[in-house]
Specification:
By secondary structure, this protein is α+β, with helices and mostly antiparallel strands. A six-stranded antiparallel sheet has the order 4-3-2-1-5-10. A two-stranded parallel sheet has the order 6-7. Strands 8-9 form a two-stranded antiparallel ribbon.
């Protein structure tokens, strides 16, 4: 690494540490059950994270007009552990660290959502996970330091049509990625759709009859954001509490709530 790249990398890491500083305390929904998430999540699932209230999380939420500021891919347990003994089951791109593995427990304090690709074959699931693991060690997009500094601007007045492009500004090199770009590339590797561009073409069959065909085109992976996995028609939203047989009749309410229900209107 050249002296210039080394200095740029140090500066980028310092900026990243400042951008990840929380603005104020983060409070997840009390009904969130991280233990249920651990029991229901499967290899190949995308885990969306609300991301707290750091400067960068707030900026991404603003630019994408979504509550989700981060995404990670669940790849399952291959035996690797962190210093605390937690299984490293996630592959993600993290600002200041690059493409890394992480434990699911890392996001136990946050509101999350599981997005599951529908009908993924066992062979493609294996390829997906192998490709994702192979990306570990790649760099986060640290080269464009000014691109990171822009997250310090509180809610800049950016027109709607330019917000997605701003997220993509620094995702040009194959070894560098932001969180959603990384996952989009992984799914592109097995040609699984997220939000592809669609083209309708007119053609004729062997008998000369007119037919319409829909052709999918892979979008630039740099244009994807965490929100896209949530709205994609090709991913099923998995809600752990419901999956484990939710019955609202079994809920225990406070005495104050029961009293108010019995009062005449």
């Amino acid at each position: 690494m050249s002296l210039w790249n080394s200095l740029l990398d140090r500066l980028g890491r310092w900026v990243a540490s400042r951008a990840n500083d929380p603005r104020h305390a983060y409070e997840p929904y009390r009904a969130s059950r991280p233990d249920f998430v651990e029991r229901i999540i499967e290899p190949g699932d995308v885990l969306l994270v609300e991301g707290g209230n750091s400067k960068i999380a707030s900026a991404i939420k603003y630019l994408t007009q979504s509550t989700w500021s981060h995404a990670a891919l669940y790849v399952g347990d291959d035996g690797a552990r962190d210093a605390e003994g937690n299984a490293l089951t996630l592959v993600e791109a993290e600002l200041g660290k690059g493409i890394i593995t992480a434990p699911l427990a890392k996001y136990a304090r946050y509101n999350t959502r599981i997005c599951r690709p529908v009908g993924l074959t066992p062979a493609d699931r294996t390829r997906l996970i192998a490709y994702a693991r192979a990306q570990v060690g790649g760099r986060y997009d640290m080269g464009s330091v000014l691109d990171i500094i822009r997250y310090w601007v509180p809610n800049p007045p950016v027109p709607q049509r330019f917000r997605r492009r701003m997220i993509a500004l620094g995702a040009g090199q194959p070894t560098e990625a932001i969180c959603s770009t990384l996952i989009a590339r992984v799914f592109e590797h097995i040609r699984y759709p997220i939000l592809p561009d669609m083209e309708t073409i007119e053609a004729k069959d062997a008998l000369g009859r007119a037919q319409r065909r829909e052709i999918l085109h892979i979008r630039d992976s740099a244009l994807y954001t965490p929100r896209d996995f949530d709205v994609s028609p090709f991913f099923r939203i998995i809600k752990p509490t419901i999956e484990f047989g939710f019955d609202y009749k079994q809920l225990e309410w406070s005495e104050e709530e029961q009293t108010s229900e019995n009062q005449p209107s």
